[in-house]
Amino acid sequence: MKKLIIFVVIVILLGVVAYMFQIGTKEVANPTGSPSPEVSVSPSVSPTVSVSPSASPTATVVSSIKTFTVVGKPFSFTPSQITVNKGDTVVIIFKNESGTHDWKIDEFNSATKILQSGQQETIQFVANKVGTFEYYCSIGTHRQQGMKGNLTVK
Ligand SMILES: [Cu+2]
């Protein structure tokens, strides 16, 4: 009787061990297959976020072009007062109505050629500093006789 009981216990133990071994091999085999494909998807999402900062600077940069037609004659400029904002691009269309003249402003290194009666020339410069600057005709004593004006940059 004792040999039979021991034999039955050994068979049961072997069955339990065999059952646990099967479960153990199944649990090891499963995890390696499924998780890896989900991890590799996420990195492709982030680059689309970095596009937005380039949109805002266009609103803050306000640089305008201010165009003035200045008529020169003995011995005056019309107009004799021009006002712009700092940073503006100033375009001067100088029309010489009578005599020999030019239009010159030292502080912005800008001048027309010497023009004869009836000629005109367009020049431009950037008003990059604040103040009141005199423009004038550099021919003879025309400046002293009144061929001058003021450019005010605010
Ligand atoms: Cu002149």
TrEMBL record:
Keywords: Copper, Metal-binding
GO molecular function, one term: metal ion binding
Domain EfeO-type cupredoxin-like: 62-153
PANTHER family: AURACYANIN-B, COPPER-RESISTANT CUPROPROTEIN COPI
Signal peptide as annotated in the record: none
One Pfam short name: Cupredoxin_1
Superkingdom field: Bacteria
Annotated Gene3D superfamilies: Cupredoxins - blue copper proteins
The organism of origin for this protein: Candidatus Yanofskybacteria bacterium RIFCSPHIGHO2_01_FULL_41_21
InterPro entries found in the cross-reference section: Cu-binding_ET (IPR050845), Cu_oxidase_CS (IPR033138), Cupredoxin (IPR008972), EfeO_Cupredoxin (IPR028096)
SUPFAM superfamilies, per database record: Cupredoxins (SSF49503)
UniProt-recorded name of the protein: EfeO-type cupredoxin-like domain-containing protein
